[in-house]
Design brief:
Blueprint: E1 7-14, H1 17-26, E2 33-40, E3 58-65, H2 72-75, H3 78-92, E4 99-101, E5 105-108, E6 111-123, E7 126-136, H4 150-154, H5 160-176, H6 181-193, E8 201-206, E9 209-218, E10 224-228, E11 231-235, E12 239-243
Parallel strand pairs: 1-2
Antiparallel strand pairs: 2-3, 3-7, 4-5, 5-6, 6-7, 8-9, 8-12, 9-10, 10-11
Bound molecules: biotinyl-5-AMP.
């Protein structure tokens, strides 16, 4: 059962659930406001990329998170909280095999099942985070993308509303872990346990720069630790590709 403090609205069509929850946040919407849509005219990924899916084929939702007391250097982890919650919710529904790809994907093997987009919004009285996710239910992804769907991976047809409830339930529990040190340690270990990136050779695009390294885990702050030729570094953000041991690229973003 979904925790009661969510206020969920469904749209047949919208420009972007992230955009509209941000508008609502600026107008004073409460923590736990959730919009989900059958179709987005202007679905967004990170860095001005597009998130696309035909009507009804993908669970596309955004949640407003108001955590005014959260340390600034922990806000970034809301992305991972939601990605972890998606993996766990799928497990709750009996769907195994999904894992996380740092920083914001849920994958099956090397194929993208879901993406998460968290955005900081100036939403008085405090800053708030709008965190959106798209999970392919029957859509196998746009042409050229290395992607998959729940139908392809599990052979099952999943009800999007049931999946949304399962994710919101997990988010409600996991976000609380961000608030204190003991919870944060538990959360980091939970993320590491489903993070397929760990143990892989990867390249990370940091603006114009490309860093190659071996992913060994998460830092105290929840950033990715890479062993590189220059030593161990902490990667705060960037596009990441998993590499085969042969060195050929296995997946894009
Ligand atoms: C993401 O960005 O993966 C974040 C996606 C967040 C989408 C949700 S839907 C609800 C909410 N409202 C929004 O407007 N957005 C959020 P990024 O890591 O930048 O990946 C984007 C890339 O994923 C694109 O450039 C495509 O290559 C690929 N892509 C687009 N649609 C896809 C799909 N349905 N399945 C798999 N890959 C897709």
């Amino acid at each position: 059962m979904r925790p009661h403090n969510y206020k969920v609205s469904h749209f047949v069509e919208i420009d972007s659930t992230n955009t509209q929850v941000a508008v609502a946040a600026r107008a004073g919407a409460l923590d736990g406001t959730v919009y989900w849509a059958d179709f987005q005219r202007a679905g967004r990924g990170r860095l001005d990329r597009v998130w696309e899916a035909p009507p009804g084929s993908c669970l596309m939702a955004s949640v407003l998170i108001r955590e005014p007391k959260l340390a600034l250097d922990r806000i970034h982890a809301i992305t991972a909280v939601v990605a972890l919650s998606i993996v766990e919710a799928l497990g709750d529904l009996g769907i195994a095999g999904a894992s996380m790809k740092w920083p914001n994907d849920v994958v099956v093997g090397e194929n993208k099942l879901a993406g998460v987009l968290a955005e900081l919004v100036d939403a008085p009285p405090h800053a708030a985070v709008v965190v959106g996710f798209g999970i392919n239910v029957t859509f196998g992804g746009p042409p050229g993308a290395k992607a998959t769907s729940l139908e392809i991976m599990s052979g099952r047809s999943i009800d999007r509303a049931v999946l949304l409830d399962a994710i919101l339930t997990r988010v409600a529990t996991n976000r609380v872990l961000l608030r204190d040190e003991a919870g944060w340690v538990t959360l980091r270990h939970g993320i590491e346990a489903v993070l397929a990136t760990i143990g892989q050779d990867v390249t990370v695009e940091l603006g114009d720069e490309q860093v190659v390294g071996h992913a060994v885990g998460l830092s105290d702050k929840g950033y990715l630790l890479l062993d590189t030729e220059q030593g161990r570094i902490e990667v705060v953000t960037g596009d990441l590709r998993h590499l085969r041991s042969t060195g050929s690229a296995e997946s894009g973003h």
